[in-house]
Specification:
The chain is an alpha+beta fold. Among the domains are: 1-30 and 351-498, Up-down Bundle (Multidrug efflux transporter AcrB transmembrane fold), CATH 1.20.1640.10; 42-129, Alpha-Beta Plaits (2-Layer Sandwich); 133-179 and 267-323, Alpha-Beta Plaits; 500-541 and 876-1017, Multidrug efflux transporter AcrB transmembrane domain (Multidrug efflux transporter AcrB transmembrane fold); 551-649, Multidrug efflux transporter AcrB pore domain (Alpha-Beta Plaits). It has 37 helices and 31 strands. The strands form 8 sheets. Strands 1, 2, 3, 4, 21, 22, 29, 30 and 31 form a 9-stranded antiparallel sheet that branches. A 6-stranded antiparallel sheet has the order 14-13-18-19-17-20. A hairpin with a 2-residue loop joins strand 8 (211-219) and strand 9.
């Protein structure tokens, strides 16, 4: 290929041109997204059973569903939450499971038990988890003309359907505001006088509000459709509806027992922009749709809406596209700056612009060519693929540097440039192909890593591998062509003469090698081993975490006040937090949603005691504090509220990487809730004694006051009543039910039937005398057939693998997580548990252990693969061992770099270590292959080591320093958007390259002389 390239330069230029055109076209078609498509292997089953207590939800719905879905093939874990009115069962599968088939199998299994569920329970909804369940944009809608009720109706009727027609939009949720409803409010004394039950009224309203087709009839050669029209057309129709009959046979009209009026729906939640109440619109994209493109289309649609409705303001409060574009821009900038620094470093060594430009061409050519492969692999431009490109910037010139440097050497020896180009490139072909393969082969183990780590790292690994292969193609085709055609021998000689600054460095290394390193090789080897041994204990001072916290520019604060807290009290507390947030110059906008919300991702209800604040910050370049720092400072100033849980959330870590809500999570398993709660309190007390632990909370909260009405079955049966009949009467009266839809003037309104309950506000015991009408028409007070008691019921019951679980959660502040986890293990190991109860430490500790295990195995596998590649290339089992011994030298640098910079051991930093396994051996490969070439030419063993080491000093320094300088911008980008994920990777690679570069020049000659039994004195 090399000889063909040099002989046919135009053909090669055209071939490369075609690849570049394909690359540019592919780039224009690649989407821009935050992260690779992350599909968590889980299926969620949501079942609603309105106004049923968590204990009953657990027994009637959750447990039956758990038992059948656990039999689905590939199930790894089943967790559930039983909340008032809702059962949520999450079925987690093994990674690699086909979720479409799994979801269908779950539906089939649930179908087998549906008939055994309560009759009035809603049909279970089964859906797959997808990161697209997080809204891609949120808009705050306000108006000086419309009330919140009118604004919500406008949004629901006109604006929401328009936005849902935008390409890529899955659904739009409208939160906040209130809706128009028609209420039928029953006067209980009048109801008692009429002898009519709530259930009778409900049934009469439902049965008298329908239009039905009634067949057809043929008349005079025409077919007429018969349609029975029975819908209510006015309020008067409702008022005159007969709902029952008195004992004297006279009808009871609805207007006799109830008032009918139009009102706003009950205020169950709120949405706010700062402290002003507003309506919030959340936009969700379709699975697989490009986030940036969807948000741009929605923005255009919003601009059109603003033109149509001049009195309506839609202001963007949050959008993922903003962070994605900023992150992509920052990543591209770090890559460009890295490329410039790498080019400068090449120029400093070559002291000539033309060869510098030829070598630097490898960077854009390799990157553009790689876009074609990435496009056909289905990858988007996201943080990981862009990081892979930025990471490879310094490495892309390695092969080109070695080729150009060797061509120069042949020219300096007097060869014609045409011959020098062929001989120089062919001579190093084996070395550069071996080094490229070792760079690539380290990524193979990542393909077999399951879980979120594999999905997260695989796109970056493939991106680096593809760009490196492209750089190898460029190095053996276009580089020899350019060198032979555009860099003359005179230029090479000029370059050689100008290289004045490098000569003293080369001479110093020659003296160091001949006067100290080789004569005292035993001391050098011992010092190297001591350095490695001394570095190992430093690991315990380096903190560990699964994934660094990523600053998306939005601080999230979750508020949960005691369960009985009213919506007004929750709103008042949220307003205080908003006041605190407004004091920060970093804050651009504050949004809040609270109470019950139709916009919950998983369909579960919030309570009147809960709220979420979304604090949008200015761009990262304009502030010094991260989103988590701002959130935590607001929490420190938050007003104290007894029984409240107010915490910040790492939204990206939780949604995308499966991060725990808090780093410390201790799970206790058993059947009895009281015993579990007692054990959980013991665990909380125990870990509360540990320095660095803060914000302890339990997942189980038993604090919601209940008035329990226990039906006396025998007495109820005596009057011909069943518990479900009694429950239905109470439900209609005190909760209210939407009996039917009222169509007036072409619009549908909910018709809500409920009792006038104002008489209970002063004395709830009046409920004891609530009238129950028997099937025989007799009226009896509720207390005749029921007993009353007061208690505190569970707010939520959690289960895992068909066992009840209570979790103890905590934050870690002011101390290394690894130290805290170690102390937690020591303390809880001594804790005695009753028979049938167990304990597990989970949370971030479990994730970190899994990460270290998986990536540790990958690093070990990568070392073996590199050895195999080298053995095959060098046709030797011994020589690769010399090369592999340079890897520990890189690990020394990684350890010290992480320690000095305060960078944690995490997925990105360990991926950096994995990549280094393939990179650091390149230096030793180049040196070792040149030793052998010199010896084959008849040079003495010791002279070959000295000459080979000194001769390869420059190309090795160029390749390593270009990689290091190419990574420096990435290492300094921690404060930028998305920089938290890039920085640890760059820091670990720079540290490893620095020590391996220095030590390899000293250690490889020493080890080689020992292996070859060369005398150095």
């Amino acid at each position: 290929m090399i000889k063909f390239s040099v002989k046919h330069p135009v053909t090669i230029l055209m071939f490369i041109g075609v690849l570049l055109v394909l690359g540019v076209v592919s780039l224009s078609r690649m989407g821009l997204d935050l992260l690779p498509q992350l599909t968590y292997p889980a299926v969620t089953v949501v079942t609603r059973y309105e106004n049923v207590a968590p204990e009953d939800i657990e027994q009637l719905i959750t447990k039956p569903i758990e038992s059948v879905v656990s039999t689905v093939s590939g199930v790894k874990k089943v967790t559930s939450q039983s909340i008032e009115g809702v059962s949520v069962v999450i079925v987690e599968f093994e990674w690699g499971t086909n979720l479409d088939f799994a979801a269908q199998e779950v539906r089939d299994k649930i179908g087998l038990i549906e008939r055994y569920l309560p009759a009035d329970v809603q049909k279970p909804i089964v859906f797959k988890f997808d990161a697209s369940m997080m809204p891609v944009a949120r808009y705050i809608v306000t108006s000086d003309r419309y009330s919140l009720t009118q604004l919500k109706k406008l949004l629901e009727d006109d604006i929401k359907p328009f936005l849902e027609r935008v390409e890529g939009v899955a659904t739009v949720d409208v939160m906040g505001g209130r809706e128009i409803e028609y209420w039928v409010e029953v006067d209980i004394p009048k109801l008692l006088e009429g002898g009519v039950s709530f259930n009778q009224i409900s049934q009469m309203l439902q049965l008298n509000n329908f239009n039905f087709p009634s067949g057809k009839v043929d008349v005079r050669h025409k077919t007429l459709l018969i349609r029975t029209v029975g819908e209510y057309s006015s309020i008067r129709d409702l008022e005159n509806q007969v709902v029952g009959f008195r004992k004297n046979g006279l009808p009871v009209f609805l207007k006799d027992v109830a008032k009918i009026y139009v009102t706003e729906s009950e205020r169950l939640g709120f949405a706010k922009s700062f402290k002003d109440e507003a309506v919030m619109v959340s936009v969700y994209k379709r699975s697989g749709a490009n986030t940036v493109q969807v948000v741009r289309r929605v923005d255009k649609a919003v601009a059109r809406i603003s033109q149509w409705y001049k009195d309506v303001k839609l202001q963007k409060g949050f959008d993922q596209a903003r962070f994605i574009t900023k992150s992509a821009s920052e990543t591209i900038n770090t890559g460009i700056i890295g490329a410039i620094l790498a080019a400068i470093m090449i120029f400093l060594f070559l002291i000539d612009l033309r060869p510098t430009l030829v070598i630097s061409l490898a960077i854009p050519l390799s990157v553009i060519i790689s876009f074609t492969v990435l496009y056909f692999l289905g990858y988007s431009l996201n943080m990981m693929t862009l990081a892979g490109i930025a990471l490879g910037v310094g490495m892309l010139v390695d092969a080109a540097v070695v080729v150009v440097e060797n061509i120069f050497r042949h020219e300096e020896q007097g060869e014609e440039r045409y011959i020098a180009a062929i001989n120089g490139a062919e001579e190093v072909w084996t070395a550069i192909s071996a080094s490229t393969l070792t760079n690539i082969v380290v990524f193979l183990p990542l393909i077999y890593i399951g879980g979120m780590i594999g999905q997260f790292t695989k796109p970056m690994a493939i991106t680096v591998a593809v760009t490196l292969l492209a750089s190898l193609l460029v190095a053996v085709t276009i580089i020899p062509v350019m060198t032979s055609s555009y860099i003359t021998q005179a230029v090479a000689l000029k370059e050689m003469r100008k290289r004045y600054w490098f000569t003293p460095l080369r001479d110093f290394y020659h003296r160091l090698l001949t006067q100290f390193v080789l004569p005292k090789r035993g001391i050098v080897l011992i010092l190297t081993i001591v350095l490695f041994i001394v570095s190992i204990p430093i690991l315990k001072f380096i903190d560990r975490e699964f994934m660094p916290s990523m600053d998306m520019g939005t601080a999230i604060i979750s508020v949960e006040l005691p369960p009985a807290t009213s919506l007004q009290e929750t709103e008042h507390y949220v307003d205080q937090l908003i006041d605190i947030a407004e004091e920060y110059p970093e804050v651009e906008r504050v949004m809040a949603i609270g109470g019950l919300s139709s916009g919950m991702i998983f369909g579960t209800s919030q309570g009147s005691n809960t709220a979420t604040l979304m604090i949008r910050l200015v761009d990262a370049a304009k502030r010094k504090k991260s989103s988590m720092q701002v959130a935590n400072e607001i929490l420190q100033k938050a007003p104290i509220y007894e029984g409240a849980t107010v915490k910040s959330m790492d939204l990206v870590n939780t949604l995308f990487f499966g991060g725990a809500g808090k780093p410390v999570e201790v799970s206790l398993y058993g059947n009895d809730l009281e015993e579990l709660l007692s054990l959980a309190n013991r665990v909380a007390d125990e870990i509360g004694k540990i320095k660095g632990i803060s914000g302890i909370e339990l997942s189980f909260k038993k604090a919601k006051p209940e008035l329990r009405i226990n039906i006396l079955r025998d007495k109820a049966a005596y009057f011909g009543l069943t518990p479900i009949q009694i429950q239905r009467e109470l439900q209609i009266a005190f909760q209210g039910v939407t009996t039917t839809k009222l169509r007036l003037r072409g619009k549908d309104y909910d018709l809500v039937l409920k009792a006038d309950t104002t008489y209970l506000k002063e004395n709830v015991e009046k409920l004891y005398y609530f009238p129950i009408i028997t099937p025989m028409g007799a009226v009896i007070p509720l207390k005749e057939i029921a007993e009353f008691s007061y208690d505190f019921g569970a707010v939520q019951i959690d289960r895992e693998n068909q066992s009840r679980v209570i979790k103890v959660l905590a934050d870690i502040r002011g101390r290394k997580k690894s130290e805290v986890f170690s102390e937690i293990r020591d303390r809880l190991f001594k804790l005695s548990l009753p028979e049938g109860y167990s304990l597990q430490i989970k949370g971030e500790l479990e994730q970190v252990q899994d990460m270290i295990k998986n990536l540790g195995i990958s690093i070990f596998a990568a070392i073996l693969l590199v050895y195999m590649i080298l053995a095959a290339q060098l046709e030797s089992l011994k020589d690769p061992i010399i090369i592999m011994l340079t890897i520990p030298l890189a690990f020394v640098g990684i350890i010290w770099a992480l320690f000095i910079t305060g960078t944690t051991i995490s997925v990105p930093s360990m991926v950096g270590a994995l990549i280094l396994v393939g990179v650091v051996v390149n230096q030793a490969i180049v040196m070792l292959t040149f030793y052998k070439e010199l010896r084959e030419k008849g040079v003495g063993p010791l002279e070959a080591v000295i000459e080979g080491s000194v001769t390869r000093l420059r190309p090795v320094l160029i390749t390593n320093l270009t990689t290091i300088f190419g990574l420096i911008p990435m290492a300094l980008s921690g404060h930028t958007e998305g920089g938290a994920l890039r920085q640890p990777l760059a820091v670990s690679m720079i540290g490893g390259l620095v020590t391996s570069t220095i030590m390899t020049f000293l250690v490889v000659p020493v080890i080689y002389t020992y292996f070859e039994k060369i005398k150095t004195k």
